[in-house]
Amino acid sequence: MKEATKQSIAIFIITLLFAATIFVVNSWTLKAYGNYQNSRIQIQENKDILVEIDNYKKLANELTQKYQTIGGDFAKIRMALPSDPEFAGIIGSLDSIARMSNVNIAGMTFREVESAPKTEPGTADYSVVEINLAATGTYEELKTFFEETEKELRLMDVTSISFKKGSTQRGATKSVIDANVIINAYYQKIK
Question: N or C terminus of the chain: which is more exposed, having fewer CB within 10 Å?
Answer without folding.
Answer: C
